[in-house]
Amino acid sequence: MDGLEIKGGAALRGDIVISGAKNAALPLLCLGLMSSAPLVLGNVPELADTILMEGLLRHHGVEVTRDGETVTMRGGATNYDAPYELVRKMRASVLVLGPLLARYGEARVSLPGGCAIGTRPVDLHVRAMQELGAVVELADGYIQARAPGGLSGGRIVFPTVSVGATENALMAAVLARGSSELVNVAREPEIADLANCLNAMGAKIIGQGTDTIMVEGVEALHAANYTVISDRIEAGTFAIAAAMTGGDLTLKGIRARTLDALLMVLRESGATVTETDDTIRVVANGRPIAADITTDPFPGFPTDLQAQFMAMMCIADGSSRISETIFENRFMHVPELLRMGADIRVHGGIAMVRGRDALTPAPVMATDLRASVSLVLAALTIEGKSQISRIYHLDRGYSRLEEKLGNCGAKLRRIKVA
Ligand code: UD1
After folding, report:
1. Integer Cα distance of 265 and 56 in angstroms
2. Tell me: the pLDDT tens digits for 360-402?
3. DSSP summary character for residue 12
């Protein structure tokens, strides 16, 4: 199994070009199911998760070709069944539900099952499809949905903000008869990206980026070329890396407005952050100062950066309170950070972190994507060699991580671990 050996202690300095956003690319790839006309997506990062999604689309009958970071899809779907073997590997596979149902009037999608960061139900996805007129049955571990006469527009009020359920509802509403109003939707930049691509394909969507989206259904979508936005979570991870290693990194191709909540806390903890239209520069000014965060839907502090921020607080001056409100079990990095000498106490969804002068090297194990990268960040601050095993999680979400960090002075290499 692949692991990473990291010899930390160096301040990271240099420029990093940010890749396309995984969480934008995954729903955008599902649009290949919604039209037989070609859809050409640029800036699609080559990651384990995007490759998996391309495989799922091929399973559905879509012709998918990749040339570097450009993915072309054509032909639409011929098979409406997303089996457990594929869906269990990646929860985002449930995003095929809306497109299949809207375009073909039927879908059979495996329930995603358990996941390291909590139970993560799909009740909101199912309810949204029902509000659009689908008949949905949960049987044999599958969501079986039908709308023989097609979906019809409706008003969907989400009781909780959900990124995935907003995306499924939006994709379904685009091909439903009549108009739809989606209320209390997620405002993440990836939702606006999905709506903008759908509009480029001929959809009629307004309000994306706000908490209410209006959709006027259309009969069919046409061919389009679209470029995926950059990955704010990747950029945020490197911004934290600069601040916690005493470094100076310029992140290129990322809009600071997508990371306001993080950048505000980085400034609070002592870093100098400067922005242009498409770059962010983070310069550390000595040891970080402790700061508190609470994760929230966008534009709040992203849950996907909580583990990385906690790693920084482990070496900050003072105590920090980290409150996780999105997922009930998203502190799996804590026991591993403790092995590196961190001082963290968890009570329910709150972690109290007392900053240490330094962490110490230890063999640690990655448990999910963002937890893994938080261990990489911690190891980058430690003089001495750390070993992180099970880093296949990193390959799900970070494109060329070793190369990007290595070019900025980090000493890390991939090794085989038993
Ligand atoms: C997406 C992101 C993930 C990020 C998360 C929150 C993708 C591919 N993944 O995941 O990286 O951490 O947003 O920003 O974009 N919920 C329900 N019922 C549902 C759906 C969700 O109760 O039917 C709950 C979840 O358990 C969670 C909350 O809603 O507590 C938010 O989850 P959601 O926004 O749906 O996350 P994902 O779309 O799965």
Report:
1. 39
2. 999 999 888 889 999 999 999 999 999 999 888 898 899 999 9
3. P
User: Which residue has tokens 């239209």?
Assistant: 277
Q: What is the CATH number of the domain that holds 398?
A: 3.65.10.10
Domain enclosing residue 135, as ranges: 22-227
User: How far apart are the CA of 137 and the centre of ligand 1, in A?
Assistant: 22
Ligand 1 geometric centre to CA of 166 (Å): 10
| Residues 6+ positions from 213 with CB-CB distance below 8 Å | 166, 170, 181, 182, 185, 191, 195, 205, 206, 207
Q: Which residues line ligand 1 (CB under 6 A)?
A: 23, 26, 91-92, 118, 120-125, 160, 162-165, 186, 303-304, 326-327
**Closest among 249, 241, 92 to 171, alpha carbons compared:** 92
Give residue 299 CA to ligand 1 midpoint distance, Å: 15
User: What distance in Å separates the CA atoms of residue 288 and residue 244, rounded to the nearest whole number?
Assistant: 6
- 142 membership: H or E segment, kind and range: strand 142-146
Q: Which of 227, 242, 274 is the last residue of a domain?
A: 227
In 3D space, the residue among 289, 162, 303, 170 whose CA is nearest the CA of residue 232 turns out to be 303
pLDDT, tens digit (0-9, with 9 covering 90-100), for 140-151: 889 999 999 999
| 312 and 247 within one domain | yes
**For the segment 160-215, what is each residue's pLDDT rounded down to a tens digit?**
999 999 999 999 999 999 999 999 999 999 999 999 999 999 999 999 999 999 99
Marked catalytic residue, from 30, 115, 197, 408: 115
Under 8 Å between Cβ of 170 and 98:
yes
From 143, 162, 237, give the residue whose CB has the most ligand 1 atoms within 8 Å, as the site to mutate: 162
Q: Among 212, 227, 242, where does a domain finish?
A: 227
Contact between 59 and 81 under an 8 Å Cβ cutoff? The reply is no
Task: For residues 264 and 135, state if they share a domain.
Answer: no
Which residue's CA lies nearest to atom 17 of ligand 1? 121
314 among known catalytic residues:
no
List the one residue out of 410, 311, 297, 405 whose CA is nearest residue 366. Answer: 311
Task: Please tell me which residue, 141 or 273, carries the higher pLDDT value.
Answer: 273
- Report how many domains make up the chain: 2
